[in-house]
Amino acid sequence: MSLAILTSRALVGLLAPEVSVEVHLANGLPAFTLVGLPDVEVREARDRVRAALQTSQFEFPQRRITVNLAPADLPKEGGCFDLPIALGILAASGQIPAEGLAGYEFAGELSLTGELRPVRGALALARQAASSGRTLILPAANASEAALVRSVSLLPAASLLAVAAHLCGHTRLEPYAGPPLAQSPDYPDLADVKGQSQARRALEVAASGQHSLLLFGPPGTGKSMLAQRLPGLLPPMNDDEALESAAIQSVEGSFRPELWGARPIRSPHHSASSAALVGGGGTPRPGEISLAHNGVLFLDELPEFDRRVLEALREPLETGHITISRAARRAEFPARFQLLAAMNPCPCGYHGHPDGRCRCSPDQIARYRNKLSGPLLDRIDLLLEVPALPASDLQSAAAGESTASVRKRVEQTWTRQLIRQGKPNARLAGGEIEQWCRPETKGAQLLQTAIDRLGLSARGYHRILKVARTIADMNGAETVGAPHVAEAIQSRRGL
Q1: Helix and strand tally (H, E) in the chain?
Q2: Which comes out higher in pLDDT, residue 71 or 197?
Q3: What is the pLDDT of residue 397?
């Protein structure tokens, strides 16, 4: 048989559309042609496949070889097509049986020795293969990652020879049976933070309602320590959330199975570009906001980020997803992250410090703070000052509550929200805010006064209501009262 057809998959964002690998052998001068919109990595498969077949003691046909990757209008990238192309050549030349290939999907990059190397996006490939009902054959190094999709039929292989032996019926590939994944991520303990009771309270409020939080204060006051402890306060992810977060990391090539179920925390440097933060590239890739999906995005030294980079956060903060469009490609990635930012109060960092060491002029302080636009600050729920602690307080302060005890209260608050409305308070929108966050009479009067005096926008008004609803849930209150509204208003007066 001079024609063989196998199934593989491409990567388009988080999707893995099906690709038919069609291999045809014809008479004529020896040639090896790849068609079907392959990129450079895929075109280089010709040399890898030829060397892998020869070193594995297979015969490389001295005929005109045409490989078509269908559909032709779908861009193909990466090395995952090496294995199906090599198997297609073997099947088309009669060196392995072509019968039964329709029940498999293949993905894997070949080394020149015929060994299989891991590919990017194995989790996305496994999710799509499970829905098709076929058995997925892929490199053994990707097995623990792909096995997270429990419904997939998975056969890991170490080499091209092992796959060929399985297809010929000589030595069967064994299903993956690896060690169980860690289910108890190790987070830093909140008890390590001494003092800063207001900041600890704000951190618990942020975790309880999934609210965004901006901490500002002099250097060394514990802003970064608090930020690192926020993921540990959040309830554990369910299987769907863990799988979605892992799929994004798999597409980027940064997934580690031992971190399965751990809420991600991403801390990009302030020199990061817009493409690095929100995603981009000629072939759209997820950025930091997508890699922080279902976790925390920590932006330290917030005013030091380029203003255009920060403005790119405005839409995903509202919608929970990002669409990256290029001239020929378009991809959409989820970006439901919890924003946690930190900044100094002035360029030197010591404005308001007890020893009065700050020498910044009012104009310098104003220019520094004006690097953050009003629309961006309006999308942050909690703004809190983290003051410097006197040495006497720091030495005498007893250890605070541990992460485990605070997490129990946060989980109880989340449970109330999910039972009542099916989502955290920070995700409420439109009529949901009016339905679930309407304050009592005294609370409404207090909020009206705050709107008049502070000049709150409609967005700021709604965010105060959502924070007040979270504080009420933390206290076990059915309605939003004046004390809850007062605390929520106070949490937005920081800047």
Answers
A1: 21, 18
A2: 71
A3: 59
Q: Which tens digit of pLDDT belongs to each residue from 102-122?
A: 999 999 999 999 999 999 999
Residues 324-360: pLDDT tens digits? 887 777 888 999 999 999 998 888 888 877 777 888 8
Contact 303, 341 (CB under 8 A): no
Angle at 205 between CA 258 and CA 435, to 5 degrees: 110
Q: What is the largest CA-CA distance in the chain?
A: 88
Buried b (16+ CB within 10 A) or exposed e, 397-418: eeebeebeebbeebeebbebbe
Q: Which residue has tokens 């997490």?
A: 407
Q: Is the pLDDT at 251 greater than 80, yes or no?
A: yes
Residue 89 has pLDDT above 80, yes or no: yes
DSSP 240: H
Q: What are the distances in angstroms from CA 376 to CA 315, 366, 436, 461, 467?
A: 10, 16, 25, 15, 17
Strand, coil or helix: 345? coil
Task: Return d(Cα 482, Cα 484) in angstroms, integer.
Answer: 5
Residue with the two structure tokens 């049986």: 97
CA–CA distance from 61 to each of 30, 64, 359, 399 (Å)? 8, 8, 78, 72
Q: Give the pLDDT band of residue 285 (cuts 50, 70, 90).
A: confident
Instruction: Round to whole Å and give the CA distance between 161 and 144.
Output: 21
Phi, psi dihedrals of residue 265, rounded to the nearest 5°:
-130, 120
Partner residues linked to 66 by β-bridges: 24, 33
Q: How far apart are the first and last CA of the chain?
A: 74
Closest listed residue to residue 447, CA positions, set 466, 421, 429: 466
Nearest to 312 by CA among 345, 344, 287, 284: 287
DSSP 143-159: HHHHTTSTT-EEEEESB
- pLDDT digit string (tens) for 139-154? 999 998 899 888 899 9
Q: What pLDDT is attached to residue 395?
A: 64
Residue 419's contacts (CB-CB under 8 Å, 6 or more residues apart) are none
CA pseudo-torsion sign 199, 463, 302, 333? positive
Report d(CA 238, CA 230) in Å as an integer.
18
Instruction: Provide the pLDDT for residue 84.
Output: 97
Is pTM beyond 0.90? Reply is no
The C-alpha atoms of residue 250 and residue 263 are separated, in whole angstroms, by 15
Q: Tokens representing 213?
A: 């939080």
Report residue 52's pLDDT band, with 50, 70 and 90 as the boundaries.
very high
Strand order in the sheet with 18-26: 3-9, 18-26, 64-70, 31-35
* Parallel, antiparallel or unpaired: strands 330-334 and 153-157: unpaired
Measured distance CA(344)–CA(200) in Å, rounded: 18
